[in-house]
Amino acid sequence: MINMKKTLFTLLIFTMSFSINAQSIFGKWHSTNEDTGEIDSVIEVYKKDGKAYAKIIEIKNPDRKNAVCDLCEGKNNNKPILGLNILTGLEKDDDEWSGGKILDPRNGKIYKCYIKLEEPNKLKIRGYIGFALIGKTAYWTRAKE
What span is annotated as the signal peptide, if there is one (predicted)? Predict the structure, then answer.
């Protein structure tokens, strides 16, 4: 009886931790090319010092695996896109993370942004200049670990 209770308790903890993880912005996400509709990269969103960051951990197109951010300015100029931090310094604000920046390696521009978990496996990313009303929204889908 005690072993059965231990097993059920362990199973409950495991299930809760899995569902909590599924409800988090943290983890691996697929970024989709808006022109082709195909997944072009895998982004890892991680937490550091209480803030959210993200970096490109996989590029799907074999011809782009060694691409550099030639349109980026400053410290990111000509850095490899693979491994590049594209989200920096977002802080949790209720049900979204905001106050940080996002880098678009396709054009080298940096935007203010916020991210929000729309569904357990769908992340909304809104990049903008000035006001959030004027900007662009993308959606990432959770990658299978």
Answer: 1-22
